[in-house]
């Protein structure tokens, strides 16, 4: 018996559309990370980029549980004394709410070169509009997968 290993010409990638409205951030990030890695496929090969292309819309309407809305996020400008702090709630209500979803998914993936390549297959948009209609993405309803995936405020 021989172990099956996928080759690059055998990989088939699909486009997946996920609506993040009222979905809990951590549960959304774990599902998106599994889709990006390709772990949902029976032919999963750990050293190959075989995950799907994922589009996440309504990132500004994602839900946070507990006190995570007040969690500080630090960044540095690169200059001496240039450390800046904002809360996750401020980022969600600010100009770039898609960064919260991107960072959550990035932290669900292992930190290596392959994961950085797989992150290029993720597109996150704050609103309901996206420019990928030509790829005819399949809709994945994360909210109906489990009753714990949604939270209404």
Description:
With 153 residues, the chain is an alpha/beta fold. The protein has one domain: Ribosomal Protein L13p, Chain: A. Helices cover 24% and strands 17% of the residues. The chain is built from 4 helices and 6 strands, in the order βαβββαααββ. It has helices spanning 25-37, 88-93, 98-108, 113-119; strands at residues 15-19, 53-57, 72-76, 83-87, 122-124, 138-140. The strands form 2 sheets. The protein has a 4-stranded parallel β-sheet with strand order 5-2-1-6, covered by helices on one side. Strands 3-4 form a two-stranded antiparallel ribbon. Helix 1 packs across helix 3 (98-108). It is globular. The chain starts with 14 loop residues before the first strand and ends in a 13-residue tail after the last strand. The mean pLDDT is 94.
DSSP strand content = 15-25%
The figure for the number of domains is: 1
Top-tier CATH class: Alpha Beta
Q: CATH homologous superfamily name? A: Ribosomal protein L13
Looking at CATH, which topology would you report?
Ribosomal Protein L13p, Chain: A
Rounded Rg:
17 Å
CATH architecture: Alpha-Beta Complex
Count of helical segments? 4
Sequence of strands across the biggest β-sheet: 5-2-1-6
């Amino acid at each position: 018996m021989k172990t099956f290993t996928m080759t690059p010409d055998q990989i088939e990638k699909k486009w997946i559309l996920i609506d993040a409205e009222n979905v809990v951030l951590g549960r959304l990030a774990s599902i998106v990370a599994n889709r990006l890695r390709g772990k949902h496929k029976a032919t999963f090969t750990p050293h190959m980029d075989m995950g799907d292309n994922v589009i996440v819309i309504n990132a500004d309407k994602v839900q946070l549980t507990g006190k995570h809305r007040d969690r500080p996020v630090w960044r540095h400008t690169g200059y001496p004394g240039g450390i800046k702090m904002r809360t996750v709630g401020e980022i969600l209500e600010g100009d770039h709410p898609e960064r919260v979803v991107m960072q959550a998914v990035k932290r669900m993936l292992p930190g290596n070169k392959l994961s950085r390549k797989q992150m290029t297959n993720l597109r996150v948009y704050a609103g309901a509009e996206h420019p990928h209609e030509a790829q005819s993405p399949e809709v994945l309803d994360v909210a109906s997968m489990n009753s714990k995936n949604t939270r209404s405020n």
